[in-house]
Amino acid sequence: MLLVQADEAIGELAFAVVASSGRTVAGLSGPLERVVAARKVLGLAEQTAVFDSAEVVTSLALEELQVRGRSTSLLQGTSTVMLSGTSAPSR
Length: 91
Description:
Elements: E1 2-3, H1 10-21, E2 28-30, H2 32-41, E3 51-53, E4 81-84
Parallel strand pairs: 1-2
Antiparallel strand pairs: 2-4, 3-4
Helix pairs in contact: 1-2
């Protein structure tokens, strides 16, 4: 499973990580546009996936979060989308 979270050079990073690991890509997870970019550079864009879904994840701006008796300054939010398939990268 490759978790795609980089803001920049997504394709290059995904390819480098998979190539250096020597492992087959069993799935990708992360924000949709980043997963699409990684999937393309790994040669998986046309690969049929067992599970291929863009999930809607709810979010809340941290400044709107209200926690009684606790500081919210250390809380972080994330939004992810998952696509999965199995194939080795090709370039």
